[in-house]
Design brief:
With 201 residues, this protein is α/β, with parallel strands linked by helices. The chain has two domains: 49 residues, Helicase, Ruva Protein, domain 3, CATH 1.10.8; 135 residues, Dna Topoisomerase Vi A Subunit, Chain: A, domain 2. Helix content is 43%, strand content 13%. The chain is built from eight helices and seven strands; from the N terminus they run H-H-H-E-E-H-E-H-E-H-E-H-E-H-E. A five-stranded mixed beta sheet has the order 4-3-5-6-7. Strands 1-2 form a two-stranded antiparallel ribbon. Helix 1 packs across helix 2. The termini are far apart.
Amino acid sequence: MARKIAGPEIERLIQLLGRLPGLGHRSARKAALALVKRRSDLLLPLADALNEAARRLSECRNCGNIDTLDPCAICADERRDGSLIVVVEEIGDLWALERAGVVNARYHVLGGHLSPLDGVGPDRLNIPRLIERARDPVVSEVLLALSSTVEGQSTVHYLREALNDIEVSVSELAKGVPVGGELDYLDEGTLAAAIKSRRRM
């Protein structure tokens, strides 16, 4: 049986850090140790930032992005092309496209992808609001910028069918995005090429 080597506060910190994507128990221990060793210039400012984020951030009721504003800054920006809605799975995908700077449109965050094995059906995703937004006469195109995974492509197929009776053009990313690839891990050049060579469906 492994002995506890730290007090309950540090053990809790390690457990919580270990829940973050990409951090296992060992990495969480390293991160916790780094935070504790740099209490004044890292741990306390991080705690303040987390408290501020928890207090002020909320989900945009229009697109599903997170921001301190509702609607978010992207939805409120009148310089955006309102005729194009770019649909992404997660907020990280939206951030990846924004970093690349290749599209100046509105976004819609689904909150995941269809995955029957994990119990994620259409009712668990932000699909009704997308359909509602696509019916706006200003919107002429919906770009399905989803991952090239099996689940991502199943979601593309479902959305294509759901948007079929709406007077809107539906497109998807070009297949330059590698099969099995996730948008948040792609470089800006690949994202730019995929956006520019999107095809009608």
